[in-house]
Specification:
binds alpha-L-fucopyranose; Beta-galactosidase, Chain A, domain 5; Immunoglobulin-like; 822 residues; seven-stranded antiparallel beta sheet; 19 helices; Alpha-L-fucosidase; globular; GH95_cat; alpha+beta
Length: 822
Amino acid sequence: MRIVTITFTLFLLTVTRQISAQSGLSLWYNKPAEAWVEALPVGNGHIGGMIFGRVEEELIQLNESTLYSGGPVKQSINPDAFQYLAPIREALLKEQDYSKANELAKKMQGYFTESYLPLGDLLLKQSFNGRTPSAYQRRLDLQTAIATTRFTVDGVEYTREVFCSAPANVMVIRIRAGVPGAIDLSVALNSPLHYTISAKANNEVIMSGKAPAHVDPSYYNPKDRQPVIYEDTAGCNGMRFQCRVKAITKTGTVTADTLGLHVQHATELVLIVSAATSFNGFDKCPDKEGKNEQAIAAGLIDAAAKRSYTGLQQDHVNDHQRYFNRVSFILKDTGAASNTNSTLPVDKRLQAYSAGAYDPALETLYYQYGRYLLIAASRPGGPPANLQGIWNKELRAPWSSNYTININTQMNYWPAESTNLSEMHLPLLQWLKILSVTGARVAREFYHCDGWVAHHNSDIWGCANPVGDRGAGDPVWANWYMGGNWLCQHLWEHYAFTQDKKFLATAYPIMKQAAVFTLNWLVKDSSGYWVTAPSTSPENKFRDEKGRAQAVSVATTMDMSIIRDLFTNVIEASEALNTDQLFRNRLTEVRKHLYPLRKGSKGELLEWYKEFAETDPQHRHVSHLFGLHPGRQISQHNTPEFFEAAKKTLEIRGDAGTGWSRGWKINWWARLLDGDHAYKLIRQLLNYSGADGKGGGGTYPNLFDAHPPFQIDGNFAGTAGMTEMMLQSHLGEVHLLPALPAAWKEGAVKGLKARGGFTVDILWAKGKLHKAMITAAIDGVCRIRNNRPFVVNAVSAKQEADDFVLSVKMKKGQRYYVHPLE
Ligand code: FUC
C-alpha cells in the first residue's frame, strides 16, 4: 500500500512537472520520407507544407488554403428540379416505389463542387555527390511546431528547420552548416497547375500561376469531357496564385534566375516563403474581381524579411503555444521497465503498437497530434479545414478534397471546443454564414422553400446543391438534405462551450433559417408524424420488398435525429437570447410529432422508416446513431431503451471500417460509457496502414489518418473520442471519467473544456478519480457526476443509480476541487 502511495505521489510530482510542458511530443524518423504519407505536415491555416526530409533533393510540397478551382456557384442551374418534388413524394408515401423515387431524385441534382488544389513543390537541391549521410534524423516537434532535419556528411553537420508562422503569415526555413561556407544549394519551385517562374533582384524567385476554371471529381469521368478546364469563356476563369521565395544569407552569395535561387558558400541561409491567391470571397470572380495576389505575396515576404530569424521563430512559437499548451494529457506508463517503444522512430513504434505493444505515450502523442493539426489547418479568417486539412498534393484529389458535410467536415471540428481550441472552430462557423446565403438560393430554386439547405458536399464557394452534374450522381450520397442542419449544431456547440451570447446572437439567425427550411420541408405521413421525404441515410442502402438495393425512402433515423437536434438547439438558443417565443413554440410543437426512434427485431436501432434488410450490415456509416453522438438525444438515463439499442447496432456493425468510421466509433463507445470498447477502437484507429494503405483503415507512418486514402477527419475524431472518454458534458453535467479504459490506469489531463463554460483538470489513479479541478467562465451552477462518492467544498455528492452527482454554485474564475471519498 505504502509503495503504491509513494509511487503515486512520485507520479503526481511528475505530472505537475510535465503537465505544464508535456514532453516527448514529437514525431521522429531515421530516414527521409519516400511517400507523401511519410512526410511531416506544418501549417498556419494559410500555408501548408509537407516536409520529406530528403538529403540531396529536399522536397516541401506546398499548399495555400484558398487555392481552389472554379469561382462563385452558378445560379439557376436546375430550375426544373422543383417539379419532381411532388412526384417523388407521391412515389414514396403513396406508391412505396423506391426505384422510381431514385430516378426522380437524380433529376433534382445540380453541379459537382470544385476541387481543393496543390500549390506546388519547393525543392532544395544540395549536392553531396551521393555520399551517404550519417546521424540522420528528421523530427516534428508538436510543442514548437518546428520540423527539423539533421544529418552529417563528411564530418559537417547540416540542420534544416521549417515552420509556418501564423503571425507573419509565411513559411520560414533555416539551413545551417557546422563548417563555415559549406552550403551550396539551389531552390526551385514548380506546380501541377499552370505557372511561370520569374526572378526578382538577386535573391527572390516568384512562381505565378493560374488555377483551373473547373476540375471534375476524380470519380467522375464521362467520355468526351476534359476533367480539368482552364478557360471558362462564358463564365469566370479560375483564380491566380503566387508563391515567392526569398533567400537571406550573411555569409554566402545568392543569384536568382528562372530556374530558381542559387546559393553558394553560405554558413547559414534563411528562406522565406509567401503565398497568396486572388480569392476574394465566395461571391466574387477570382479572376475579374480577384484580390491582388502579387501585392499580398510581396508584402508578406518584405515584412518578414525585415525580421530576424530568431524574432520570427519566437513569435511563431509563442503563437503556437498559446493554443497548444492549453491542454496536457499524460498516461503513466505502467508497463515493463524494458519498454523501449519511445526510443523507436514513430513509424516503427506505430507498427509495434499495431501488433499489440503497450505504448500509452503513443496514444497521448496521437491525441496531441490531432490538436496540432487543427491549429495548423484552421485559423480564424481562413477557410475551414477540408477533407485533407490543408495538405493536398493532387490536382484531382480524392473526393476533390472538398467539404463532405455528411460527416467528414463536422468530424474535423469535434475536438475544437472540448480540447480548448475554440478559436480554431471559427473558420467553420464563419463559413456557415456563406453556406446559408448560397443555401437559401438552393432552397428557393430547387424546392421553393424558405430558409436554407445544404446537401452532402460543399467547397470554398459554398456549393449547397445536391451534386451530380444534373443526373449523374448516385442519390445514396447526392440527395441528402441535412448538411446545413447538422452544421448548425456547431454554432450551438460554440456557444454551449464558451457561453458567448454575443456570438450566439449572430449565429441564431443562421440556425433559425435552417429550421425554417426544415419546417417547410417536413410532410405528414399517414400516421400523422412529421417525416422527411425524400430521405437517404448516408451512404447506405436497404433492400426493398423485392430485394432490390435502394437508397431513397422516407424519414431515415439520421434525418429525424438531426432535425430533433436542430430544433432543440434553436429552442434553447432562443431561450438563452430571450427572443422569438412564437417560433420557439412552433418548433416545440412540431418536435413532439417528429417520427420517433424505433427498435428492430434484433434489438438494434432502426436506420430506416421500416425494418428493411440491410445491403451492408457492416457499412462504415452508422448514421442512425447521430442521437448518441454527436447528438444528445440518446443517453443511459434519459432513453435507456435506445441506449441499449444503439449498443446493439454498434455490435452488429462491428469494429472495422475506414479511418474516420473507427474514429466515430471511439466517440460512440465513450458515449455508451464503455471505456474498454472505446479503447479497442483507439487501437483499431491506430492500426498501421503502411505507406501504401494496404494495411486498411487506420494510420499512416506520419500518423495521418488512413481512410485509406488519406483523410484528416479520423485524426480529429480520435482526439475528440479520447476526450469523450475522460470528460463528457452534453447532458447538462460535467461527467468526470465517464469511460476510462482499464488500459489507462493512471493519468492526468489538464485544460479540457466542458459545456457551460467550464475548464476541467482531472487526475486519476488505479482507474479512479483522484482529484479534479473545475473553473467556471461565468457565475452559475455546475452539476458534477462521477461513478465514485466525492465531495466539493465539504459537500458530498448524492447517489443516483450507479453514479454520484452534486450541483455546485460556482463563481466566475474561482477554482473548485473535486475529491473522492475513500
Ligand atoms: C463519404 C464517405 C467516404 C469518404 C468521403 C469523403 O462519402 O462515405 O467514405 O469519407 O465521404
